[in-house]
Amino acid sequence: MLACAKLNLDLRVLHKRPDGYHELRTVFQTISLADRLTVEFTPGRRTLVTAESSVDIPDNLVTRAAGLVLDAAKVRGHAHFQLEKRIPMGSGLGGGSSDAAAVLLALPVLIGRSLPMETLQELAAKLGSDVPFFLEGGTAVGLGRGEELYPLPPARLGPMLVVAPRLHVSTPEAYKALSRGLTFSGLSHTIDSFRSFVWGLDGGLSKGGTCDGGANDFEAPVFKLHPRLKALKGKLLKVGAQPARLTGSGSALFGVFGCKADRDEALRSFQDEPAFAVSAISRQQYRSLWWRQLRAHISGRVWPPQSRYDR
Ligand code: C5P
Known about the structure:
The chain is an alpha+beta fold. It is about 35% helix and about 25% strand. The chain has helices at about 60-75, 95-110, 115-125, 170-180, 185-200, 220-225, 225-240, 260-270, 285-295, and strands spanning about 1-15, 20-45, 50-55, 75-85, 140-145, 150, 160-165, 245, 255, 275-280, 280. The chain is globular, with a radius of gyration of 19 Å. It starts with a strand and ends in an 18-residue tail after the last helix. About 45% of the residues are buried. Cytidine-5'-monophosphate binds near residues 24, 128, 129 and 172.
């Protein structure tokens, strides 16, 4: 199975909430860069979840997600995962969250128990703020912690480049550096500006499109902590990206190009950093990908995928 990465086409951080999380406004977008996950399930009297991964993962969301699914479905057995990481970790591309959502979408199908979308959304929110988005994919507005989602029509995005420097930005530290309080004086300006971004998305997010505004509020504090990221954004703009922006709290950046030739030319100038040529994956493409990869085990094209073994 493939588990796609995401970009935050726009990301605003409003106030800090009494629960310690921050209130967000964001636009998520799934992209073609993806991890590869395989799963085997053997029914048994005891539940055991094991995982092998191409890299060491301290807090593996895949095994946590599998535990939650087996508990919710009241099924016992051994679930074994093999994870080939292609999405750079801790880079704001949502790799761990996407892997977890992949387990929520696929494991119920494989064990023959359909879980309703509301249950999957609840489990997803427990696993992390970005996980619920990966149950839907495509282009979507995220509010709250990012778990309150509103689908948007597919954003018209040109060919893109993702640059993921080998540099870890701690998300809690990035939030701390923003030093938002329980109230935020820039609220109405930020909300107006976010709204124009979302409306403008209709016209396409690239040079010549009506929507080349947008922002990521983490850029100011994260660029201050890591000036190399600011320089990389400058480089993306110089080689023709419009816009170029940090995704999540970084450290990855993305650039949108007018055509493939420009993007491929730009890719050649990023030989010192891991860089990936990617395209947007719409919600329809995301669903089709899942139906295709689970086709031996599902009945019909319904969302979320439904097991053909369901009793
Ligand atoms: O939910 P997730 O595990 O992705 O969040 C990681 C950390 O980022 C949280 O523990 C919190 O410190 C911070 N965070 C936040 N506001 C959000 C999302 C995350 O303060 N909306």
